Each structure stands twice: as structure tokens, then as C-alpha cells.
Amino acid sequence: MFSDELERWLKSDGPKTLEALNAVFAERAFAVGILLLMLVPALPLPTGGVSHVLELVAIVLAAEMVLGRRTVWVPGRWRNRELGATITGKTLPFVMRRIRQVERFSRRRGSRLFGQRWFNRILGLVLIALALAAALAPPFSGLDTLPSLGAVVVALSILLEDLVVLVVGLVIGTGGIVLILTVGAALVRLLTGLL
Description:
By secondary structure, the protein is mostly helical. 74% of the residues lie in helices and 0% in strands. The chain has one domain (2-194). The protein is built from ten helices and no strands. The radius of gyration is 17 Å and the shape is globular. The relative contact order is 0.15.
């Protein structure tokens, strides 16, 4: 189970850096990174613009997936930087508990698909679309929550290799995009009616 792997890595004596994360999880490091980055925008809380930075980094990681990279590229000065006590002591254990809840119901359905490079490139495009939709949602509207949550669930489906979880993530993310477009169109009509 992925949560057990994550727990072993957290409890190991090795360094807790981006380079170590990359070495332990290999191609799945993309999904781990996107899951962690999109978790903050997925919370229905005001983030004061921090979520846009996280969404941008998630888009870069997803673009690396589309390009077919096998490992996450990060700038040299970030590779050996420690993740910090907040991430390793609070965020990752919180994420691990939530993943364990999903793992109880998840099964490896369609795991061969997740091993295909073309499929991972498509998932990279999906993740770019969801992160971009979250970033373009009207500020302080809370509309970025659903596309972000969709990206988190899609990333989780990659880690669990479960097509059912992927479909759930796609439904949540698509619903969020439709909601953004619907509310955006209504706002445009309202503003043009006032002018």
C-alpha cells in the first residue's frame, strides 16, 4: 500500500528532501508532489494567493509528466533542501491518514494502464487542466476548491492505480470546471446588463 511506503519513508533515518522523495517514489513522485501541492487549494479556506503559486508548480510537474520525464526535475538548489517539520510532521501524516481511508475501498483496477507512458501523459494533461481551472477561478469565490480536489483525487488514483478513483476525480474536477464556467457566464451577463 502506498500509505505504508510513505510511512516507512517518513520514519526512515534518511534525509527528507525533494531529491530523497524523488529517489524513493520514482515516477510516482509526480503524483505525490501534485497531491501535496493541490491539497491547499482544495481546502475551502481563503489562502491569500498562496494557492496560485502552488497551482503553478503543480502545472510545471504535470507538464513534466506530459513530456514523458521519468523523474521530477527540480532546480539544483531545491533538491537537497529539507522539507521541514510542518510537512514531515503534520502535513504528510494527515495526508497518510486520508489515503488510508481511500485505500480501504480502493483496488488495483486498471493498473496496467497506469504503467503506460501514453496514459500518464494524458493524466498530465488532465492535471494541467484542473490546476489551470483552479488558478483561473474568480478570486475569493471558493470555486477553485472542486477542480483542486479533482486534481488531488486524480493524483491519488495514480498512486493507488485505481481507475474507479480516477473516474471520481474526473467527475469532481469536471463538475468544478462546469461550475466555474456557469458562474463566470452569469457574472459576465450581470455586468454587461449593468453597463
